[in-house]
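Data availability (excerpt). The following record was deposited with the supplementary files.
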Amino acid sequence: MSEALERHEFGAEVGRLLDLVVHALYSEREIFLRELVANAADAVDRRRFEALTNPALGLPAEARLRILPDKAARTLTIADAGIGMSKTELGQHLGTIARSGTLAFARSLAEAPATDKPSLIGQFGVGFYSAFMVADRVEVTSRRAGTEEAWTWASEGRGDYTLAPAARAEAGTDIVLHMKADAEEFLEPFRLQSIIRKWADHITIPIVVVRDGKEEPANEGTALWRKPKSEVTEEQYADFYRHVAHAFDTPWATLHWRAEGTLDYAALLFIPGMKPFQPVEGERESRVRLHVRRMFITEEAGLLPPWLRFVAGVVDTEDLPLNVSREMLQATPVLARIRKAVTNRVLSELKSRAREAEDYAKVWENFGPVLKEGVWEDAEHRQEVAALLRFRSSAVEGWTSLVDYLARMKEGQQAIYVLVGDDAAALARSPQLEGFRARGVEVLLLSDGIDAFWPERLASFEGRPIRSITQGTVDLSKVAGGEPAGEATDVALLLPLLKDALKEDVSEVRATDRLVDSAAVLAAPEHGPDLQMQRLLRRAGRGVGGGLPVLEINPRHPFIRKLAEGAKDDPALAEKAGLLLDLARVQDGDTPRDPAGFARQVAAALGAA
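Predicted structure:
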């Protein structure tokens, strides 16, 4: 060819702009390879599309993306068989950074808050220039499909670029990066393969890395989620689940669907069959991977709410741009709609599978505490999540639901009763349950850390209030049957005496008919945290709030009857009152106010017996 080398200027502000692109937009240098691979994949897809109406542009039979590192020359070549670019297109696409105006782009980028930068970046498309993070010089040789002419675009990322005639045997593009001295890690074939597996493993075009003259596959090349379900085997699902979830088990549930219409996306999600080695309670963010046109974008898009963070998998959409700043993907309206659709689909699967109690128990035992977080924090789905909760109960073996509880409620029972503590087995023996058992009233036993929080936020289920039996006064008089046995002693004179003796430790002393075998029990005031929440606050070194606890005594118990008979003239009443309070504390899993003094009192009582 006779054309001479042509030199063109980017524009006076390009140095500042490229500096922003290289140093401000990316947190990981390896992103450059993702960007260039994404561009190459787009070029191949475009050629494939144009070939539908112009068969002469068809892809070669063995089209692939080749990545060729050359340590001796310190170059990295990325070659594709895509649509290619003409001389004019090279100037337009590579020679005009941010075609809407480089100065406007630079100004907007510099002035915008960090949360707005991704949307600005997406408007200008500058991903190619990430190559200058690792390269001193970039050369692009391209031949447009359907033409015989090739051109080379070259730049050192400063004030200008050159265009020169070139030769290329086939249509497509070669990008040659002359690597910086501190970027030689990207000339190692193993490093390149690991980056491809991370960011572009499921791009459908084969990607190969040349090592010692031989081409080695770098990607799987099959987007399993884009295949019809009928073409995917259970073994393939299980293998992909283990890959994406970093797990060794088989999934409890596999959700594979394609949405078309208002939203266009494919999803392949898995509910694990066992807990991961890293506790899901400690990690708050969902890690479902977001892909755009098969290209991995991020696993931090929040595609599912935190209370479904145990779900693993991939969501792939056509409705989002391949953004330069993928690691800072913003919450676009499209992404928000996808989030809602995906969340509803997972909820639907859980509700469907929950009908099989034995099967559902497996996922509940693994991830129940995480699901409970949805009741606490997600107002939109609160009632739906509540229906998925399962509990131990004072009345039935195994797990039960709120729906089943409602079906077993006694005549005259007004509320759903719960008892919260640290251990379900210990709760089942709690004296707090005595009066409820006597009347046949069921109490749900809650022993997860989150159980101290969510009942207050849910407040009611299907019109029935949820009440902690340790909070306020629980009136069981309207529940038919099961009245406590024995005659109640008149404790009218005893109550104020006990209250005066314990005035530093309790807010009130009152009689109760919800005890059978125990002499006393503690309750929280009507307003404020219940007993378990108070314990949690004390452990955290925080003020309890809501006032001192209430001491409830059983007027049918022999010890209370004896106290009531001689209370007025008993010089040891204060000591006995303290012992009564400490017994109530111990029964609820708490410690006595003075453990050593309590031990001496118990020993003295045993010696006198």
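Summary of structural features: The domain at 6-217 is CATH 3.30.565.10 (Heat Shock Protein 90).
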